[in-house]
Design a protein that fits this description.
The chain is an alpha/beta fold. The protein has one domain: TIM Barrel (Alpha-Beta Barrel), CATH 3.20.20. The structure holds fe (ii) ion. Fe (ii) ion binds next to loops.
């Protein structure tokens, strides 16, 4: 793994910040064979080793829970966490916890009203995502129901919803913040890995102080070098040096 980063940084590697100040990656697809992330335990271990090399020491893995696509239950996620842990000895065991990334669709508010239990991390945080190409009419209602049920919603990769960035303005994001919805940004967005619009949005969110969590959202090892590159981004460096991020409270 050091080869990948060695090639990028050469001898400068030790002079640069790493992500250890964050301590916790709270958005990653590390469990084997449960979603579109790691396919097997070997891949899970490679992802974790790569993230450790970048400075992360605690992992909250967040498999997709998307009805009809990834029908993951709490029991299945916990089973997969046990499977992952079985790939390590007692002394090499990484600090991995399991939460989930819940897809908000039209039925979501009813599921919460009906008392469906969700996997949380930290202080009752629940990671949620929503359609990336068009607004979900039930988003506000879903977020309201989550809060009513005692959860603290965190919007995953907030910069990946270009329709929320109307006329290059952050009004919709500010409204979410005012409703106590926390925003998570993907580190790879700062490099343009998802596109130029997403890059512009994430930088605007960073400048406006609207980002509460940074995550890798890592799915495969090929994404590790992009994370190393994100570390050198000016906005990322400013976030790492600032006090607004909550990763290290987890
Ligand atoms: Fe994700």
């Amino acid at each position: 793994m050091s080869g990948i980063f060695g090639n990028l940084f050469g001898s400068r590697k030790n002079d640069l910040l790493d992500f250890s100040v964050l301590r916790t990656d709270m958005h990653a697809h590390l469990l084997p064979g449960i979603d579109d992330g790691a396919g097997n335990i070997d891949e899970s271990k490679q992802l974790i080793a790569g993230l450790q090399e970048l400075g992360f020491s605690r992992f909250i893995t967040t498999p997709h829970c998307m009805p009809g696509v990834f029908d993951n239950t709490i029991a299945r996620i916990q089973e997969k966490l046990t499977e992952l842990k079985s790939g390590y000895t007692d002394t090499t065991q990484p600090d991995v916890q399991a939460a989930a990334e819940y897809y908000i669709d039209t039925e979501f508010p009813d599921r919460i009203r009906n008392g469906e239990k969700l996997l949380t991390f930290g202080e009752h945080y629940v990671l949620v995502e929503v359609n990336m190409t068009q607004p979900e009419l039930k988003l506000q209602e879903s977020l309201f129901e989550l809060r009513l049920a005692g959860y603290k919603p965190v919007l995953a990769h907030a910069e990946r919803y270009p329709y929320m960035f109307k006329k290059n303005a952050l009004k919709e994001y500010e409204q979410l913040r005012d409703a106590d919805i926390l925003l998570q940004a993907n580190l790879r967005s700062f490099t343009g890995d998802y596109g130029e619009v997403q890059k512009r949005i994430v930088k605007a969110l960073a400048e406006a102080g609207l980002i509460s969590f940074l995550g890798t959202d890592i799915h495969r090892t090929a994404q590790l070098p992009m994370l190393a590159q994100a570390m050198m981004d000016k906005h990322v460096q400013q976030l790492l040096a600032g006090r607004q991020l909550l990763n290290n409270t987890l």
